[in-house]
Amino acid sequence: MLEFTCYTKITPAKDVPETFPAYIYKLTPFADLPRHAGENRNFLDVLGMITEVSDTHSVQLPNQPTPTLNRDIVLKDLSNAEIRLTLWGRRAAEFSIDSIYNEEQAKPVVVLIVGSLMKTYAGQGYLSGNTACRWYFNPTIPEAEQFYTALHNQRLPIKHITAATQQATPLRTSLHLEDKYLSDLQAMDPYDFPDGGYRCTITITRLVLNTAWWFPSCNRCSRACAPDADGYRCNTCSCTSYRFKYKLCFIANDGTAEAEMIAFGDVARRIVGKPVQQVLRSSRSANNTPPDIAAIVSLKFTLAVTLTEQSYYNPQKSYQVNSVVTAYGRQHALPHTGDDQQKQPATSQIPIHSLTYPTSSSTHPTSQTLDYPISSYAAPPDPTVPSEPKSTAPSPQSNIEKVTAKNTPPDATPPPSLDHDETPSKKSKLIHDIGSSKHSAAHKRLFQDTIDIAKSLILLTQLCTYASLFN
């Protein structure tokens, strides 16, 4: 892989030596492929013999509006370990073994695959080949000689999987879904909700407070990782390789009702319009919502949604966004239901960004809504905490900082300043915690010293009183 910059100079080679390699590769054994799942900074190269080739077929991906071509190839190494290679788009259409394979002779076909990435779906690992992927049949490289020697004079038929018999990958699709209003979805029995979900056209009216907008995702199984030493570890597969992904929680409204929705990963990226790493690098405070995240308020979309598991156990339904069907852009006015219009003053013309305050510790607690200007990204005061009288009026910024720190949940980890895709060290957080504990201990010592001095003064006063009586 080469990286070109504005300072790169390219000079054509005139006298090319005969020993110049025809292929550039760095082979990864099949056994080592799973640990590279989810990594996208470096491409993987593999060598194996072809055992199966499927026809091309169309697959609807959750984050794409139109279907894309797909083709599966099964590779086997000399230890009989297998790996599936999935080619996409133009690469799927270009792949063909017709020119090198004869069904009557069934000679083994060894292929060098370069420029692929290791991914997982439904717990199964596979190689993904897109624009950067290339292949070379029966290459003249030292590693391939081992295959030629072991497979000499052997027959290795390649199984052809037709489009009619192959099992398509069960990806969620947003095609042919019925359009519904939010009021219809809210009134529906959860057990009547179809597995494919529905489409709905909504406008994002506010964010859900006290929910992290990013999380560390396991590269192997895509589940959320938990803090572990200086990094994160997946509790499901014990993998320590991860990358950050979006987790957007927001309230949507279509004029008939409002509902809580959640979007992850690439689907959330389409809503925000920027990679999560870019937003993490620009975020400077753990207590304030980044402007890029707050900017999704007033955006209108047609979304394909399904019901979350929590909706079966909570009266307040929530929906997971599986794909963005259509984006309409920013709206000048936010939709309101009848209840919202009663809450809003008739003379108010300023767009309102309402944040939801949890009032219980349940997964989807009952919420209380407060009006909050969209121009500010800090958390407003907690309505459950009584206000304290103030003798002086501090600056608004200091008020916001104090209130936000008080309302920040214990598990709200500050967005790290990233130099790469991996999780940064937690040393800075530990130092902050230690410093906070030192300040707390100092306050306790000061308070205790004050009590001791007061006791001493009381005792001294009593002694003086007794002495005067005796005199």
Briefly say what this structure is.
This protein has 471 residues and is α+β, with helices and mostly antiparallel strands. Helices cover 22% and strands 27% of the residues.
Report on this structure.
With 471 residues, the chain is α+β, with helices and mostly antiparallel strands. It folds into two domains: 30-161, Beta Barrel (OB fold (Dihydrolipoamide Acetyltransferase, E2P)), CATH 2.40.50.140; 182-384, OB fold (Dihydrolipoamide Acetyltransferase, E2P) (Beta Barrel), CATH 2.40.50. The chain is built from nine helices and 17 strands. The chain has helices at 89-94, 142-150, 182-187, 265-272, 276-282, 291-294, 338-343, 396-407, 427-470; strands at residues 44-54, 57-59, 68-76, 82-88, 110-121, 124-137, 159-161, 198-207, 214-218, 226-228, 231-233, 242-253, 258-264, 299-307, 318-330, 355-358, 367-370. The longest helix is centred in the C-terminal third of the chain and has 44 residues, at 427-470. The N and C termini lie far apart (99 Å).
